[in-house]
Design a protein that fits this description.
The complex is a heterotrimer of chains A (about 300), B (about 250) and C (about 290). Chain A is an all-alpha fold and about 300 residues long. Chain A has one domain: MetI-like fold (Orthogonal Bundle), CATH 1.10.3720. Chain A has helices at about 15-55, 60-65, 75-110, 115-125, 130-145, 150-175, 180-185, 190-200, 205-220, 225, 255-265, 270-300, and strands spanning about 65-70, 75. Chain A has a two-stranded antiparallel sheet with strand order 1-2. Chain B is of the alpha/beta class and about 250 residues long. The chains are: A mainly alpha (about 300), B alpha/beta (about 250), C mainly alpha (about 290). Chains in contact: A-B, A-C.
Chain lengths: ~300, ~250, ~290
Amino acid sequence: MPDTGKTGGSRFSKTEFAERKERVQNLARWLFFAMAIAMIIPLLAIVAYLLVKAWPSLSLEFVLDVPRKGMTEGGVWPAFVGTVYLVFISLAVATPIGVLAAVYLNEYAKDNWLNRTINLAVINLAGVPSIVHALFGLGAFVYAARFGYSILSASLTLAIMTLPVIIASTREALASVPMAFREACWNVGATRWQTIRSIVLPNSTSGILTGVILQVSRAAGETAPIMFTGAVFYKAIERGDIFAYRLNEQCMALSMHLYTMATQVPNVDESVPYATAIVLLGSVLLVNASAIAFRAWLRSRKKW
Amino acid sequence: MPPGEKISVQNLRLSYGSKEVLHGISFTVAENEILGVIGPAQSGKSTLLRCLNRTIDFVPDARVSGTILLDGRDIRSRIDVYELRRSIGMVAPLPVGLPLTIYDNVAFAPRAAGLKNRQDLDEIVERCLRQAALWDEVKDRLNSLGTKLSGGQQQRLTIARALSHEPEVLCLDEFSIAIDPVTTMRIEDVLKELRREITIILVTNLTQQARRLADRTMFLFKGEIVELDRNDVIFSDNPASQMTYDYVNGIYG
Amino acid sequence: MIGEKLLELVIRFSGISAILFVLAIFLFVFREALPVLTSEKFSVIQFFTSIEWYPTSVNNVRYGTLALIAGTFSVTLLAMAFAVPLGLGGAIFLSEFCGPKLRETLKIVIELLAAIPSVVWGFIGLTVMSRIIVKYTSAPVGVNMLNGAIILALMAVPIIVSIGEDALKAVPDAYREAGQALGATKWQLVYRVLLPAAKNGLLAAVLLGVGRAVGETMAVLMATGHAVHIPHGILDSIRTLTANIAAELGEAPVGSEHYRVLFLTGVLLFTITFLVNLGADLVIRGVRRK
């Protein structure tokens, strides 16, 4: 019988070497688990802390009411509506361009220098710092295009900022449609566009939509790009008024409002900025979570 | 071009990037015959089919030279490539039910060609599904998804779709690779029926399938035609090439 | 057919528009900055090498961005010191050590973490983090480099985790099976097989994290304090290139030299992030080619 190691015992008992290997393995598992947990703890702790601090001011009334007494009291309605305006106008501009660009890149583009350049451009567009987008919006829309400080300028700036992410998520959705479907269509004499319209787009709409919803939450949180192009500290509108702003006017925005409340307004009740943060964070996470749920539901009813 | 010749391929060369896959092959296919194409993987069989209906145009770095004549006309000179593709039916190795209803799967090609009349479409759908021996199984659920059918049913659906644009030539690329023997036999029966009306090119990994169905068989190896002859020669004890004999008898490949 | 051709033209143009937008961003920002380059009070050498940033001084304006550059890089570096081990560790855990259910949950959490707006992170830095820092360190004020770095790290971790996980997933399963067949433990597998095989993808993940940290504005504006100087320790207040623009653009008169210099720092930022992202892209491309 061959030697089974220093521990003796039966042929299959663990050797010291095997035990050490296992200990390292377990240690590594726990170490990495701790690292993963280190990501969750902050999220929960932060949300909990913000909630506790915000509690005195938090109510539905806080969302619907307008700021009062030099913004030290009241609610966030003008900022909330402003954010909704900015997000929807920017997405109305960015979605068609982004989706078409993704269709081009995924369905039409061959591997040549032009399309490599486009890819590079998309990647770099995604990496441009938000404050540089702000400078661009100021130079291009506010001054060069003479849109002035307005919802239009701010929305267009946001639109260009969200464009690369819409392109990326749409491409992913398009790429998830198997190549075999396209080939089957081409084989029976369908044109590229017929293939895209009847097979590719219908089967990726939901994925594209998820990407756009996720973009709603990103655009809602942006501050720097709108700070110098169309968002203001304060604007008086009616409580609960939905049609408060025009395209060529400036507006308040939740993200900007939070920055203002946190850094510029003196003598404000401590819970007000926290409550503003909760409204912003809550809206963003809610939209985000619904997009994630939507995506999960879609995956469960895939057609192939 | 002699009468009775459906397809004539002359000195067809094809390369993907710098790698040449077909090294200048020439052959003809007669009207209403079944031409079997056999050969090991990577010998250019599927690529050859892609050249026929010009879906090779969709492959970014593919370069083609040589001529392919269909009914004596160069396929490159065709202005309407979509019409060309409709005159050639193509069945891929793996069954592809499009994520549409069974009805829409079959009606897809006629619709793409501009046919809108519901009655005509109904007729085409029924005829093609019957031809593909699928009608009886699906006639009560034409509105359910084509992708939910079994593999064998989907392959017959694919054949029905390939017939829906009334092709003059039907190309099948290893159609039995993903389906069971019983379904394979059923489809082979379908092909025997179809040969009366159309020309069939049958690329297959099963040499015995070519032996059963084809009039002539081509042995393609590494992008060159080793031998192309009537079946009673190819599958005899003394084909022209020793390689053919070895391959057909399972000694090589 | 004509309609289809027209549509394909629109699609093609949309694709190309991405290039136009990048060019437009550079051109418009550069156009606003251009006049200052010829001004006699401005020198390019001073712009890059001087630590003196006195844009509003009445009789001796100086536009040196060295302190701001140092601020940006020091806070980014410190943030990466926190984020890289956490992010890569998280990525390894997700792709190699955890079960599918936990993985799905964690990925959702990471996605939500990535969705928190930067202004909320800045607010957290300003309120929560600064109090913690004052309490546990000797720092006189809580808004400083350490604060900014922690916030930036929390913001960069989700990116590093998700892209790092993709990189690890891209390693063929055959490698894992071969390793396990040789009797390697998970840890040996990670250390000796997966990390070397995925190193380019992981590097790209880190670079994209760096890109995000360098370009981040609101969080560092609110969390790092506002001292324009070369930091001597991690408890010093600093100011970054991005925060500087955000803080001063509102007060600089339109068309003034100060205003144009701020645009010039924008060009500088654009260039830095462009290079970082280009690097990440090249690294990722290298991975794909293999």
